[in-house]
Amino acid sequence: MTRIFVPGGPSRFAHQKRGLAMLIRNRGIGALLFDPGTGKTAVVIDYSCLLALKAPSGEARVLVVCPLAAVDTWITQVQTFASPDVPYWVEALGGSVLERARALAARGGKSRVLHRGKPVQGRMVHHRKALFWAASHDVSPDQGPDALPSGRLVMQVLNIDSFSSRAQRGGSTMADVMLRAVQHYSPDLIVVDESHLLKSPNGNTSRLFGRISGHTPRRIILTGTVMPHSPLDVFGQWRFRDPSAFAAVLGWQGRGDPPFGRFRDRYATMGGWMGKQVTGFKNLDEMQDVMANLSEVARKDQVLDLPRTTDVIIPVSLGPAEKRAYGEMKKQLAAILAPGVIATVPNRLTQMMRLRQITAGHMPDDNGMVHVLGDAKVRTIKSLLTTTLAGEKRVVIFALFKFEIDQLAVALNEPGTELQVIRGETSTEERQLMRKRFGADPATHPQRIVMIAQIGTMSLAVNELVTASHAVFASLSQKRDDLVQAKARLNRQGQTRPVTFWVTQAPGTVDSVIWETHRQRGDLEAAMLAHIRDA
Q: What element of type H or E holds 342?
C-alpha cells in the first residue's frame, strides 16, 4: 500500500508544491529562486522528510549552510514544517570553527580522525556547544539522534562563515579540515541558503563549496536575489549546485567544472583599462535558459496575495553643524568637528562612509572619538512614532550605524513603549527572545513594542516582523540586497495589512543618491562619485 506524504504545518501553496516536485524529479539537484517570504524553507524540509522516509540506512543526513542570522530560524522551521511521520534531530553547531568541524564529522555516526592524530570519538562530540537544538520524541540532547526511531531526519545547521577560513593548520588549511568534516558527515543533501553569498568566484567560501559539490549526491541552493551585482554572480552558485550545467554552452570538455574566465568571456563584454574591465553583458538569454533547468522561480507578487506596500520619503533638514561638516567633507575630504578637532579621510571610499555618518548625526575624528553633530534624523523619527504611528502596537526601525542606534534608543525610551535593540553583538539567545515577543499577536499581547535593529542583523531569515505594518529606515546600507531583504521581513507570508516603509532622507545628500540608485538598480559607486565631484 502506497503511503501518502503528510507535510507538517500550514498547507503549502502551489509554487511550493511545484518546487518540491522539481526536486523530486531531479533527484535533489535544484535551485529554489524564491523571493523572501515565499516559503522556500518549507519546501526543503518537505524534501528532507521524504529522504528520511525512504532512507535505506534508516536515517537521512542533511547539512544546511546559511547566514548567522538564519541559523536559529532553521531549527524553528523544522519544528513547524517537519512531517508528523518523521522523527527529527536538528542542531545548529557552535564552538570554534575546528570544534564545529569535529562535531560535524562525528554526526556521521562513525569514529573518524579529522586532523592529525586527533580522533573524533562518538556521535555527540561537542554537543553541549550547540547554538540551538531540537528533537522529536522527547529525545534529550545527551541521547543523540540514534535514540530516535528509524526513518529519522538528522539535520546539522552551520553558519556559512564556518567555511571562509583558509588559515594553516599543520600541513592543511581550515578549508581542507571543513572538507574532510563534510566527507565524514556524508550528507545525503547539502542546502546553501542565501546562495548569492557564493557569488565571488575566487572567494574562499565559494571555492570551498566548489570542492564540496562532488561529495554529496544532492545539492539545493536557495536565494531570492541570484544576481545581486551582475550576471557573473551566477558562476559561483552553479559551480556548487551543478558544476557541469554550463559545460556544454561553454564548450568545456576538460576535467572538473569550467573555469570562471571562460564563463566571463561568454557572458561579459570586456573593455576599459587593458581590456580587463567588465563593460557590459551578452548572451543572457542563453544563461537564463541554462539556469532555468533544474530551477523553480517564485516571485512574491505572482504567488502570494499580499497587501500592497508603499514607500514614503521623509525629508530631513540637517542642523547647522551637520550641514557644515557635510559640505566640508564633500569638498575637502576633511571636516572641523570642534576647535582643534578634525576628521580627515584618506580616500574616496572612506569619504563616502563619513558622508553617510554625517547625515546620521555623528562622525569620528582622526583619533576615533565619535562626535555628535546633530539629531535631525532622530527627532524626525521620534516625531513620526509619536504622531502618525502613535497607535501602532509594533514598529520596526532599521538603522546602519551603532552610534545612530544608541541615539534612537535614548530618544525613543518612553513610558508605555517596550524598546527592543538588536545590534550585531546581540547574542542569538537574546535575539530569539525579542523576536518571539515581537511576533506575538498584538490582539492578545497589546504591549506597544518598537524594535531598533541594525539592518545587517535582521534583514535575513526573520519571520516574526509580520506583526508590524510599518518600518522606518533611518539609514540605508550600500548593499541593495540589505534593503530588499529588510523589506521582506514585513512583506511576506503572514502579513495581513498594507505595509508602509518610511525612508528618512536629507535631500541633496548621499541619502538620496543611495535610495535612487537602489530603486533603479544602478551603479552605486559611480553615482556616489558623481555626487562627490559635484561640489
A: strand 341-344
**Pairing, β 470-473 against β 448-454:** unpaired
| C-alpha span between 18 and 83 (Å, rounded) | 18
**β-strand partners of 344:** 334
Angle at CA 396, nearest 5°, toward 391 and 397? Answer: 115
Report the SS3 class of residue 385: helix
Determine how many CB atoms are found less than 10 A away from the CB of residue 87.
Answer: 22
Domains, the chain, ranges and CATH? 14-243 (3.40.50.10810), 309-533 (3.40.50.300)
Facing residues of 270 across strands? 278
Instruction: Give the DSSP letter of residue 18.
Output: H
Query: CA 295, 296, 297, 298: dihedral to nearest 10 degrees?
Result: -160
Alpha-carbon distance of 431 to 423, in angstroms, equals 9
At 405, give phi and psi (nearest 5°): -60, -40
Percent of the chain with pLDDT over 90: 61
Q: Convert the pLDDT of each residue in 401-438 to its tens digit.
A: 999 999 999 999 999 999 999 998 888 788 889 999 99
Is pLDDT at 2 greater than 80 in this prediction? no
**What CA–CA distance (Å, rounded) separates 41 from 191?**
10
- Specify the DSSP element, H or E, that contains 57: none
**173-199 CB burial, b ≥16 within 10 A, e <16:** bbbbbbbbbbbbbbbbbbbbbbbbbbb
Q: CB of 492 within 8 A of CB of 36?
A: yes
What residues form DSSP beta bridges with 281?
268
The burial of 49, by beta-carbon neighbours within 10 Å (0-12 exposed, 13-18 middle, 19 or more buried), is given as buried
For residue 116, pLDDT over 70 is answered with no
DSSP 254: S
pLDDT > 50? residue 501: yes
Helix (H) or strand (E) holding 73: helix 71-81
Query: DSSP label at 196?
Result: G
DSSP string, 387-452: TTTTT-SEEEEEES-HHHHHHHHHHH--TTEEEEEE-TTS-HHHHHHHHHHHTS-TTT---EEEEE
Grouping H, G, I as helix, E, B as strand and the rest as coil, residue 281 is strand
Name the grid cell of 403: 552610534
Taking residues 471-475, what's their average pLDDT?
A: 95
Which whole number is the average pLDDT over 324-346?
A: 83
Question: Each residue of 373-384: pLDDT tens digit?
Answer: 999 999 999 999
What's the pLDDT band for 461 if we cut at 50, 70, 90? low
Q: What is the pLDDT of residue 4?
A: 84
